């Protein structure tokens, strides 16, 4: 129990950070009825939580009062990233790369579109709009739970990198590439429609001919890779940091991601289009077809 208590405090502090960050953003966005920074705030929260999951034990020594009194001095006194285990640096880097790429992409898209149509009705209702930010707290906390769990364990207790880490990084890289390609194809299609270079109402070429949500598949795949990487620690024999059931529970991260993002929003927009009905009939929803 003692071995678990210190990492548990760090994980809880990381989740509390996600909650505090999203409450702060909601306090501004909900009254103003603006969703412009919703996705960007989610990406920044992932970054902030990555920092806290690594440095909370050091920050806890100073305390919140001490940090607020001299934030710059406190930050400058923190250890170099070199003190962390390569597994921690890998998972943290994977999280930051993904969050930076997706956050900036969605933010630019929101600016170009004048907002996010998902929130056109929701943001008029304070309760429903506030719930969207609560959902983002769950997204950050659960999706990256394997990352927070690994970062919470001191480097001296981390086992050496092994085949699980290599496999996980490979899966993450494949998922990241898949998501980036799918997003770029979608962005190019949206631009072509805006410039009236195509009359197609929906995208059904490239990766979008393999599945109807290739970007979501790529995102779920990369978080699966992060989970597999975390197993290098979570399933290490003779390491009583986490209970054996925790490695199974952490699998909820990629499952939650898949359930969260596979929404049938296209059905409302194109549901009666015969071409879209045929597209749905021939193209899988999530997992891409091989041929």
UniProtKB/TrEMBL annotation:
The keyword Transferase does not apply. Keywords: Membrane, Transmembrane, Transmembrane helix. Signal peptide: none annotated. It holds the Pfam family DUF1295. Gene3D superfamilies: 1.20.120.1630. GO terms for cellular component: membrane. The chain crosses the membrane at residues 36-55, 90-108, 129-149, 161-181, 216-236, 242-262. PANTHER family: 3-OXO-5-ALPHA-STEROID 4-DEHYDROGENASE (PTHR32251), STEROID 5-ALPHA REDUCTASE C-TERMINAL DOMAIN-CONTAINING PROTEIN (PTHR32251:SF17). This is Steroid 5-alpha reductase C-terminal domain-containing protein. It comes from Geranomyces variabilis.
């Amino acid at each position: 129990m003692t071995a678990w208590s210190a990492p548990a405090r760090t994980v809880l502090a990381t989740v509390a950070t996600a909650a505090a960050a999203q409450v702060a953003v909601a306090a501004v966005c909900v009254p103003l009825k603006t969703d412009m920074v919703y996705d960007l705030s989610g990406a920044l929260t992932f970054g902030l939580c990555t920092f806290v999951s690594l440095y909370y034990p050091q920050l806890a020594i100073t305390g919140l009062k001490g940090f607020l009194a001299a934030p710059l001095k406190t930050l400058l006194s923190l250890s170099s990233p070199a003190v962390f285990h390569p597994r921690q640096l890998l998972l943290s880097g994977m999280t930051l790369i993904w969050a930076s790429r997706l956050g900036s992409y969605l933010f630019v898209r929101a600016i170009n579109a004048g907002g996010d149509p998902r929130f056109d009705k929701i943001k008029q209702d304070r309760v429903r709009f506030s719930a969207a930010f609560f959902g983002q707290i769950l997204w950050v906390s659960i999706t990256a739970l394997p990352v927070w769990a690994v970062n919470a364990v001191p480097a001296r207790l981390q086992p050496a990198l092994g085949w699980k880490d290599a496999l996980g990084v490979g899966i993450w890289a494949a998922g990241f590439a898949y998501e980036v390609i799918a997003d770029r194809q979608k962005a190019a299609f949206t631009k072509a429609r805006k410039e009236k270079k195509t009359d197609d109402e929906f995208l059904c070429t490239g990766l979008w001919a393999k599945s109807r949500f290739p970007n979501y598949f790529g995102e779920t795949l990369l978080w699966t890779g992060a989970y597999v990487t975390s197993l290098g620690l979570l399933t290490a024999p003779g390491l009583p940091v986490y209970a054996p059931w925790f490695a199974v529970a952490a699998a909820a991260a990629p499952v939650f991601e898949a359930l969260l993002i596979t929404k049938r929003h296209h059905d409302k927009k194109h549901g009666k289009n015969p071409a879209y009905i045929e597209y749905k009939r021939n193209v899988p929803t999530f997992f891409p077809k091989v041929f």
